[in-house]
Amino acid sequence: MSKSKYKKTLVSTVVVSALLLSGCGLFGVEEKEQIDPPKEVTYTNEKTEVTEKTNTTDKTTAADKEKDAAVEDTRKTELYLFDKNGYVVPQTLELPKTESVAKQALEYLVKNGPVTDMLPNGFQAVIPDETKISVNVKDKVATVDFSSEFKNYKAEDELKILQSITWTLTQFDSIEQVKLQMNGHPLEEMPVNGTPIGDELSRKIGINLDVSQAGDITNTKPLTVYYIGGEADSYYFVPVTKRVSNKVESNIDAAINELVKGPSVTSNLLNEFNSDVELLDEPKVEDGKVTLNFNESIFGSFDKKMISQNVLESLVLTLTEQKGIESVAITVNGKAELMSEDGKKLTKPVTRPENVNTGSF
């Protein structure tokens, strides 16, 4: 297959980059853990020194212990909420630890519920106010039963509510599919606008559907990519499901192509690539790692061999949505010479974070 087939032109939109990239994962998790390590304390018999340590170091230690205890009592959970532009967007929040994680996640999607004081700016809950929920998980299928309040939503929100519930529940390893009920009766369609549900729901239903360039939709398949949403100093990543031709054999190649095209000009979403970036070779997949070989334009506007955090995260989030892809390695002209924005060499493939949009960037 010729190299020219894989040359692609990328849409350029200037945005501010996020926090710096860890060598083996997104969002700088490992780097954060190394900041301000605990200091060794030496005690003496001198009263003045003991008093000083009690007034400073001991107070700091007590505060740190209290903070650590609070973290131990919570669990990071992705909630698929509505942003101000109407997109269904994952936001990772610290929820109290519980054995009923699936039920808890849905309860935190209820309007005027426990999530109210935790909502990020511009975001809102999804499920109608006062809806009661029960969840039963068996054989990786979550059966959700809603009270009658569930039907108190606007017709235009119906599909997005369906997507939010499905994607929130399928974040858990124990759940791959979802069934919906209301007052104990199975729902074959949504109660307000009649959106078909079928027997079981999965992530195959897509999210934030974009069919503007699909043409004949019957000859296409869904593919989810991640673009940038929000504003400066508060960017986040938005999953968008597009339709690509059934004739495309490689979902990886199709995903790169959709990132190349970028979001719709009317979408209020952003994409951070130089217009002359080229993918020089066919993506290579081995042992869960996909290797992408770009030209030097992937470095963006940096003077040195650095790659934008937003470019990396869009690529990694998009490609790890594909079955069997766990990490992404990027080379330039066949060489692994990239650096993160803090000047550190990216010597390892980049893996998907455990949680998306943690508010740490």
UniProtKB/TrEMBL annotation:
<feature type="domain" description="GerMN">
    <location>
        <begin position="252"/>
        <end position="341"/>
    </location>
</feature>
<feature type="domain" description="GerMN">
    <location>
        <begin position="102"/>
        <end position="191"/>
    </location>
</feature>
<feature type="signal peptide">
    <location>
        <begin position="1"/>
        <end position="27"/>
    </location>
</feature>
<feature type="compositionally biased region" description="Basic and acidic residues">
    <location>
        <begin position="46"/>
        <end position="64"/>
    </location>
</feature>
<keyword id="KW-0732">Signal</keyword>
<dbReference type="InterPro" id="IPR019606">
    <property type="entry name" value="GerMN"/>
</dbReference>
<dbReference type="Pfam" id="PF10646">
    <property type="entry name" value="Germane"/>
</dbReference>
<protein>
    <submittedName>
        <fullName>GerMN domain-containing protein</fullName>
    </submittedName>
</protein>
<feature type="region of interest" description="Disordered">
    <location>
        <begin position="38"/>
        <end position="64"/>
    </location>
</feature>
